[in-house]
Design goal:
Blueprint (H helix, E strand, L loop, with lengths): L1 H6 L4 H4 L4 H10 L13 E9 L3 H8 L2 H4 L16 E4 L10 E8 L2 E13 L3 E11 L6 E10 L2 E10 L5 H29 L14 E3 L1
Antiparallel strand pairs: 1-7, 1-8, 2-3, 3-4, 4-5, 5-6, 6-7
């Protein structure tokens, strides 16, 4: 993971976050809903984009954990070449209380996490959080989620993560240095995959549309 962190160092300052004000702003933005961000999750990152499809189709697509977390199943510089295996229980990660488990190995270290779906309101909102004692290197306990809203050009998608640093001395330091960058990378990968899944083919050269982010 140190190799991956060093390779990603150029994005560090863009990913480092200051959280407290950002977290309170997210709570304020959830009008008509209950803010469910426990105090244990001190750090926050959110990213958003417009996806060229309707809200129901987008929610159905993201409701499948194997699609939403597909970036974790691909070898990349940010994961130092590691691929995480994704497993679900009978609820397939699509019901409140359903579990999603991921595991992998990096530089000889086994990483394991167990998530549980806590909120599911089709086609508007879904949240899940880690349970038990995670074996991770850069971030500790966390909760994630996405929100979808109708938009004139399709559907507005917002992906967020609220997290804490790992407990260990070395891993806490890694979290301090690179946790913000990882949170940014993870949420933006989910956005990019969603945009790509519903992108309409066009003739000639194309380029990716910039993603707006909020922290």
């Amino acid at each position: 993971m140190l190799i991956a962190a060093q390779a990603a160092a150029s994005g560090y300052f863009g990913g480092l976050i200051y959280l407290k004000s950002a977290a309170s702003e997210r709570c304020k933005s959830l009008k008509g809903t209950i803010c469910t961000m426990p105090a244990q999750f001190r750090y926050h990152y959110a990213a958003e984009a417009v996806v060229a499809t309707d809200s129901h189709s987008l929610f159905e697509h993201l409701d499948d954990p194997t699609r939403l977390s597909a970036h974790m199943n691909r070898s990349s510089r940010q994961t130092a070449g590691m691929c995480m295996a994704i497993e679900t229980d009978g609820g397939r990660g699509r019901t409140v209380g359903s579990h999603i488990r991921m595991s992998g190995r990096i530089l000889g270290i086994k990483l394991v996490l167990d998530e549980v779906v806590t909120v599911r309101i089709p086609p508007a909102r879904k949240m899940w959080e880690i349970v038990g004692t995670p074996r991770l290197l850069i971030i500790g306990r966390y909760q994630m989620g996405f929100e979808v809203k109708p938009h004139s050009d399709g559907t507005h998608l917002r992906v967020f993560i609220d997290y804490a640093r790992p407990d260990g001395m070395i891993t806490n330091l890694l979290g301090y240095l690179f946790g913000g960058y990882y949170a940014k990378w993870c949420t933006q990968q989910m956005l990019k995959d969603a945009v790509a899944a519903f992108a309409k083919p066009v003739a000639g050269p194309t380029r990716s549309a910039p993603l707006s982010t909020a922290s």
